[in-house]
Amino acid sequence: MSRYEIAQAKNVFSNVMLSMNLDNSSIFTKLDVGVFALRGRPLNIASIQRAMESVGGPSVKPAEIIDGYVSFPLTLTEYLVRNKFIEAPVRVVPHLEEGDYVVNGFDAPARFSMKFRRFYHLIQKMISLGYGIGDTVMIQILISDKKITLSKY
């Protein structure tokens, strides 16, 4: 559902109040700029595409799932290294769950927050593996077991 649709359905809040409520909501999760979903509800790609198109964004292509894995490349930037989190791509989010993900080669897990679509503690693991700013890392997530494998792209 797009922010515009929410605003039309609930014409009670000012734009500022609506934005503040959506950004801090325990009911809605932000999928992308102006695109929100109800927490705990299963998401399908068609719904996300419709919401993205309603805010003028590009159509979301479904994430490719091969042998239970969803994968995406990530180029490490100064911003990512400084802020120490990764935002999961919109096309991947429907396949993820809130919580801890085991990262191959590490005892401490990475944590995924559905509210912010972010992985925490994953950047630090990439850096400890020798990746640096400008490197592109392939992130492979075994959906069923919540396991992450990192490799050079």
What is the end-to-end distance?
34 Å
CATH domain class of the largest domain: Mainly Beta
Number of domains: 2
- Helices and strands: which structural class? alpha+beta
Q: What is the CATH-assigned architecture of the largest domain? A: Beta Barrel
How many helical elements?
5
Overall pLDDT score: 84
- Strand coverage percent: 25-35%
Strand ordering within the main sheet: 3-4-9-10-6-7-8-5
CA-based shape: globular
The main pleated sheet reads as:
8 strands, mixed
CATH topology of the largest domain: At1g16640 B3 domain
* Total beta strand runs: 10
The whole-angstrom Rg is 16 Å
**Helix share bin:** 25-40%
Residue runs with pLDDT of under 50 for 5 or more positions: none
So, the CATH homologous superfamily of the largest domain? DNA-binding pseudobarrel domain
N-to-C SSE string, H for helix and E for strand: HHEEHEEHEEEEHEE
Give a structural overview.
The protein has two domains: 3-54, no CATH class; 65-152, Beta Barrel (At1g16640 B3 domain), CATH 2.40.330.10. The chain has five helices and ten strands. The protein has helices spanning 3-9, 15-23, 45-54, 78-83, 122-128; strands spanning 28-32, 35-38, 65-66, 69-75, 85-87, 99-103, 110-113, 118-120, 136-142, 147-152. A hairpin with a 2-residue loop joins strand 3 (65-66) and strand 4. It is globular and about 50 Å long.
